[in-house]
Design goal:
Blueprint (H helix, E strand, L loop, with lengths): L13 E6 L3 H4 L10 H16 L4 E6 L8 H6 L27 E4 L10 H8 L3 E7 L1 H14 L4 E4 L3 E2 L3 H14 L2 E3 L1 H7 L7
Helix pairs in contact: 5-6
Length: 200
């Protein structure tokens, strides 16, 4: 039986956090990746709205500089070793290229918060809630969503803006995140919670 839960939605100044929307995960040319044009498009729509509203936008990437970083994680998933600083795989998908003032935070583990400056940056921006998107639903997205809650941010996950290599894992993790850690909703409903940009 599901626990009773409250929908918290977005605050007055949400931040958009794009988790690992990097070429290594958005291209099937990489052993870690899968082609996901629909997920990229959903992220593009969110970027467009957040930028028009001058709301905080932040990206993450995964990059390993030496063999000692995240040793156990990399021993378990050897394909992670392709994520080197000089590889194309660690760059944000060019369809979602960051703009000035939108940091790309490097990480070595699943959560975007673990041993990074993400929380400090969000506090500096005055962010009071998070829209978490990216890849993969059952991996780095879920880990980031759980830590987002643990850092006291209400978290919203637009279901079309996250993806996974395994459809069953995708659905199961959306269900579980919504049950405990975040509001999982449609992209249309997330956009509806954001104001429309002012037109001149």
């Amino acid at each position: 039986m599901d626990l009773q839960r409250n929908s918290l939605g977005l605050g007055r100044r949400p931040a958009l956090l794009l988790v690992d929307m990097i070429v290594g995960f958005t291209s099937s040319r990489c052993p870690l990746g899968t082609d996901c044009p629909d997920v990229v498009e959903a992220n593009r729509q969110l970027l467009e709205r957040f930028r028009a509203l001058s709301l905080p936008v932040v990206f993450t990437t995964v990059v390993y500089h030496h063999d000692g970083e995240a040793r156990v994680f990399r021993d378990r998933i050897p394909h992670l070793n392709v994520l080197k600083p000089d590889s194309e795989w660690v760059h944000v998908d060019p369809r979602l290229a960051p703009q000035a003032g939108e940091p790309v935070i490097p990480k070595q583990w699943a959560s975007s918060f673990h041993r990074t400056g993400l929380d400090a940056w969000l506090r500096e921006q005055g962010a009071d809630s998070l829209v978490v998107t990216g890849l993969t639903t059952s991996g780095c997205v879920r880990a980031t969503v759980v830590d987002g809650l643990q850092y006291d941010y209400p978290v919203v996950v637009p279901q079309e803006a996250v993806g996974d290599r395994n459809p069953e894992a995708h659905q199961a993790n959306l269900f579980d995140m919504h049950a405990k850690y975040a509001d999982v909703m449609s992209l249309a409903d997330v956009l509806a919670q954001l104001p429309l940009p002012q037109t001149v």
